[in-house]
Specification:
By secondary structure, the chain is an alpha+beta fold. It has helices spanning about 1-5, 50-60, 125-135, and strands at about 10-20, 25-30, 35-40, 40-45, 65-80, 85-100, 110-115. Strands 1, 2, 3, 4, 5, 6 and 7 form a seven-stranded mixed sheet that branches. Strand 2 and strand 3 form a beta hairpin. It is globular.
Length: about 160
Amino acid sequence: MRAHIGHDLLLLPGVSAIVVDEHGRLLLARRSDTGRWAILAGMVEPGEQPADTIVREVREEAGVDVVIERILGVATHPVHYPNGDRCEYLNVSFLCRAVGGTARVNDDESLEVAWFEPADLPELEPYSQLRVDLALRDAKEAWFAPVGSRHPALVDPSM
């Protein structure tokens, strides 16, 4: 697709997960494209449901099997990649519980995969941090940006 449109903006369906283990630690991956720590995420494939996507993505990227606990939120957020590609993701974020597997780098999208205590997280991009905060709060309802507003974490600082 990029061969046809170049670096132009694409709207893409995505999912992300805050994965928690039995000790309350959070699973993060250090991305190979930016070198930054982030929550696990991926794109929904044609014919795939978002819940199936996040279970698949966590297994493919980190070697961990999860079950979904609840939806954390839904939002769009822009991403400007180092190679110049621009995307706007419609993201469904899930809170997931690890139920098997071993956390490891399982593909070329990550440099490292590790469990972190909530109090000892590395620096995260604002939208990743927002989703972590949503997972750690006690509320059970899904989060979304209020009508007519744009949460600061949902703005690409490079644009």
